[in-house]
Amino acid sequence: MPDILARLPLAAIRVFEAAARLKSFTRAADELGVTQAAVSWQVKALEQQLDQLLFNRLPREVTLTSAGERLSRAATEAMSLLRSAVSDLVETEEGVLSITTVQSLGGQWLAPRLGGFQIAHPRIAVRLEASSRVVELSREGVDMALRGGQGKWPGMTAHFLIPAVQTPLVSPEFLARIGGLSRPEDLLDIPRIGIAREWEEWFQAAGVTVAEDRLTPRLASDAQALEVASALASHGAALGSPIFFARELAEGRLVMPFDVVARYTGGYWLAYPSERARVRKIAAFRDWVLAQAAADPLIARYAALAPLESPAVSPLARPL
What we know:
The chain has 320 residues and is α/β, with parallel strands linked by helices. The protein is built from 13 helices and 9 strands. A hairpin with a 4-residue loop joins strand 1 and strand 2. Helix 1 crosses helix 2, helix 1 packs across helix 4 and helix 2 crosses helix 3. The radius of gyration is 26 Å and the shape is elongated.
């Protein structure tokens, strides 16, 4: 069977992809370095080859037809994969390494260590995005992700980094103000910060059964870092990872009132598209960050804990 692409002008598909993605012939022309007339001609030639309209030409804009929408999705994905493959072929250990991660892991654990990576690899500049947004790496031009979950993502290679653990954290000032905490049950009588079901899990790990009407915390956020910031401000006890907040604990700005640490199933992983495993900047960061995790005694300590058997909710079910 003959290849249907053999009769289509690939240059026209490239032009169409840009026009569809940018929703403008003018902006596509600027991106490609050609004239608007050239873009219009190439799109028209492609429409003639396919015998279908791909754009609705309106007085001041263009919109995709249903056929155009379908072709646009495939063309954008194909061009993204092609750009990635070509980039990898000419890639050297230099340029910009783009990493996406969640706030607590990125800000508390990774960022303080990044200086060591940049000293070891001065030709690689790191761009770090710390947010709760889940990024599609190939589509958005991001090289790697540090993600929470089970480490199973189609088409991705994932390396385990850090276990998911939480324990109550308080400031010394807050602890002094309430006269101390002698038993886990005492936490029921003070302001708590965090998600109710995560507190329920911690109380279960501590051997405390709590009535549902006593679980409601005073404050909850969509990020662990924000909740622990409230604890640092002496507003109450927040659930947080002793790995991520090791510096605050070592400096005495936070206190773990109890040794009970709940470990959840899953953890935090370094992930990247499997086909890009040999890209030098990706391999350099992978080797470096895995060595950092292996050298962190807290990671080894808490990774040895048995995970909760059937947690009502893992802290990885929300952005941390």
